Amino acid sequence: MNAPELFELGMTRHIRAARERVCDAFLSADELRQWMCPRGMRVAEASADARQGGRWRIAMVARDGSRFVVGGEYREVARPERVAFTWSWEGDAMPPMQTLIEVSFTAKDGGTLLQMRHGGFPAAAVRDGHRQGWNTTLNKLTEHLDPRGAAATITLLGDARSTYTRTVRMGLAEKGVAYALQSCGPHTPELLEVNPFGRIPAFRDGEFSLFETSAILRYVEECFDGPSLLPGNIADRARCEQWVSATNAYLYDTMVRRFVLQYVFPRGEGGQPDGGVIATAVKEMPAQLAALDRACERSDFLAGTSVSMADLFVAPILAYVERMPGGAAQLAAAPALMRSQGKVRERASFTSTQPPAA
Ligand SMILES: N[C@@H](CCC(=O)N[C@@H](CS)C(=O)NCC(=O)O)C(=O)O
Question: Which CATH number applies to 7-147: 3.40.1180.10, 3.50.50.60, 3.60.21.10, 3.30.530.20?
């Protein structure tokens, strides 16, 4: 009888840390506790007897309390060049199997090239599930060891003048997550690599990439501790989603595309703003602002009692509207909304993401 086919995955990372440090991250319980689980989980227990034949074990806990326990045996410990260990899940939350992980550490470009092979999976789907887990787990390892922290793995592709880019930047600031801003415009080749629709922003976390502002913020929300960007109760969370969706469906189109951008990038006759386009937007704005105003009558924020994604979507738009001809007068007719904007505008997430003057 033929031996069953087994599957393996390979991963590579360059980490700005000496290889002794990178290697040690696999060898001590204190180190493993800092990083050895996918984003959005935490290591609740860790043990490691890092010598050939010694055992290691980790209990990971997800936000919803579900627990995953994995462990195995060190097969090779050749610090700082190589480590090999077996990997078996306990319990029935994950498929029963024993797989083997081999990791090598090579000094490169002032840091360490980590090359990992995880082999022995009984099915391609099981391997692919582990690949996803390893991607964000190695992002956590990189973040733990690299002096740049999360900015070593997280890159936001966008333009500091774009309202949607600012929304994500505000979300990252609210959560206290470091990131690198890669300045790039819509429809540029580097942006199209991540977002086939060509809009900014787009987002990378190691090998994982995303586009659409609300999806990016959801990912940030679930991966990182720090204040939640979503309200605490069901009705307020739905209300938050309502304003995110309304921004994507109507508010951005009216207030930015057909109002603000007409002044910032005039495309009318003789390089002037297109008065016809602006006039239709200006007519729609009072009803939209009145709806936002009503939402702020009982709270300083659009959904719930603290800042949420809803505020992060709306604030950058209104800040631009206010600076355009007639914009401040439109906003003055929405006093509850402007009281709320006052609260959002005093936050560090807003003041630290001011767009450069156009
Ligand atoms: N639904 C997208 C919208 C993003 C968007 O429209 N971004 C603007 C800049 S603020 C853009 O890329 N505009 C270029 C275009 O419309 O081609 C999201 O939520 O990220």
Answer: 3.30.530.20
In CATH, the number for domain 234-351 is 1.20.1050.10
pLDDT digits (tens, 9 = 90+) for 80-118: 999 999 999 998 877 788 999 999 999 999 999 999 999
β-bridge mates for residue 48, sequence order: 56
Atom of ligand 1 nearest to the CA of 248: 1
Measured from the CB, is residue 54 less than 6 Å from ligand 1? no
Residue having the nearest C-alpha atom to atom 16 of ligand 1: 199
Which atom from ligand 1 is nearest to the alpha carbon of 197? 17
- The CATH number of 151-223 is 3.40.30.10
Q: Stretch 254-258: mean pLDDT, rounded? A: 98
Cβ–Cβ under 8 Å, residues 247 and 313: yes
Residues 198 and 192: their CA atoms lie apart, in Å, by 5
Q: pTM for the complete prediction?
A: 0.94
Structure tokens at 330: 């439109």
